Amino acid sequence: MRAAFALLRRDLLLARRRAGETLLVVAFLALATTLFPLGVGASPDLLARIGAGVIWVLALLAVLLGLERLFQPDLEDGSLEQLLLSPAPLEILVLARCFAHWLATGLLVTLTSPLLGLLLSLPSEALVALPIVLALGTPTLTLVGAIGAALLVGSGRGAMLAALLVLPLEIPVLIFGLGASEALAAGLEATGALLLLGGLLLGALALAPLAIAAALRLALE
Amino acid sequence: MHGYATPLRFGRILDAIYPWALAGVLVLAPVGLWMALVVAPPDYQQGDAARIMYVHVPSAWMALFVYLVMASGSAAALIWRHPMAEITARAAAPLGAAFTALALLTGSIWGKPMWGTWWVWDARLTSMLILFFLYLGYLALHEAFDDPERGARAAAILALVGVVNLPIIKFSVDWWNTLHQPASILRIGGPTIHPSMLWPLLTMALVFKLYFICVLVLRIRLLLAERRLASLGVERG
Predict the structure, then answer these.
(1) Residue B226 DSSP code
(2) Contact residues for B53 (Cβ-Cβ < 8 A; gap 6+)
């Protein structure tokens, strides 16, 4: 447990020292959001209808684009081997790493989502609902994405293959996340979708570290 | 089980299975097609167009079944490092992708006259499409590494992770309101399909399964031969 906290502290320190890189996520989100009014037309009705979906897709893409930074640098500078050699279980360390990564992507998406929603003329109910649901859904995105990142670490293959591996597994999160966001925004009963999202998160918390650790052990065999 | 970890003994089982499976396909395929296309009555609503069911439903079943074969092989490969299980999983993957593509394709052709559209984004269709991409991801991951051993084991992990999708596909028509009809054969309370249509369908399903076994044996033999060539230092031409 101490080792996991130490790793978390190191990752957060690294993220703070490279604040520019972290802010790139925000820049990416803002820029990608502007593409939609330009691409599908700037009518507020249309944007309000697709806005929540757009933000969910952008959250997914932001997680996907960050996957290469999850384990690859550690492999290159040798610290991944140190993690494996450490007496602490790799599954716990991996969980700490994913949490640090989520703070730098998923949490940023969650916090900026009301602003992005404003740009997409979402109604105010949706601006409140989105961050709540994103906070519940984006950790699952990171955990499932980390499986793909760990499988591909050291392969030298780009984001395309990672997308092919990870996207099919992320789709359920997208479906239930969007369902919950829209139900909450419309003032409808969203308990079912929220419970399912929470269930997905718990399942991913329990199972994804096993798969990630197995993939990392394989990579360093 | 480990007795069968050598290509020689495993090959002997394959040799024993293959002629029976092939004979089964050669005998049952004409019977099944004749039952499906001639004997079975046309659907009272859909007419003769419903006969595509006898291809569509077995390929959809096979799409799931082959993934199960692939995942079991992958699990055995990861747990016991069983080399033949690994080769079986690898050999099954393109077949599963082909069955999934066939199910999607025939479903699309069936959907156009019946639903008025080639494609809808409902749960059953979307989850089958995801299954197709899982197969593609497995195959791509297999080829992604210079070291084939690493590719095989990484792909095996992916195959196991993807198993979560199977119950979602199977029960998607029960959990969500979809355009696709709910399960009519494997359901509590017995099948809702009339025996005159059930028997041709089950025969066709058996034909598909035997055909899968035939092609699987051929593909395993191919992979074993390729591996042998590689170990002898012969490049694949």
Answers:
(1) H
(2) B110, B197, B201
Substitution target from B158, B166, B177 for chain A, most A beta carbons within 10 A:
B158
ipTM field: 0.84
Residue ranges of domains in chain B: 52-231
Q: Which residue of A has its CA nearest to B121?
A: A175
Q: Of B200, B163, B180, B171, nearest to B31 (Cα)?
A: B200
Please give the Cα distance from A80 to B193 (Å, whole number).
57
Chain B interface includes A172 (CB < 8 A) = yes
The verdict on a CB contact (< 8 Å) between A164 and B153 is no
Q: How many CB atoms lie within 10 A of CB A118?
A: 12
Q: Rounded distance, CA B87 to CA B225, Å?
A: 11
Full-model pTM: 0.87
Q: Are B137 and A164 in contact (CB under 8 A)?
A: yes
Instruction: Give residue-wise pLDDT tens across range B45-93.
Output: 777 778 888 899 999 999 999 999 999 999 999 898 888 899 999 999 9
Domain count, chain A: 1
Cα→Cα distances B30→B15, B23, B36, B202, Å: 24, 12, 10, 14
Residue in the block written with tokens 């792909």: B155
Please name the amino acid found at residue A185: A
What is the domain range of residue A168?
2-219
In degrees and rounded to multiples of 5, residue B179 shows phi and psi of -70, -35
User: How would you label B205-225 residue by residue, b for 16+ Cβ within 10 Å and e otherwise?
Assistant: bbbbbbbbbbbbbebbbebbe
What gap in Å lies between CA B155 and CA B164, rounded to an integer?
15
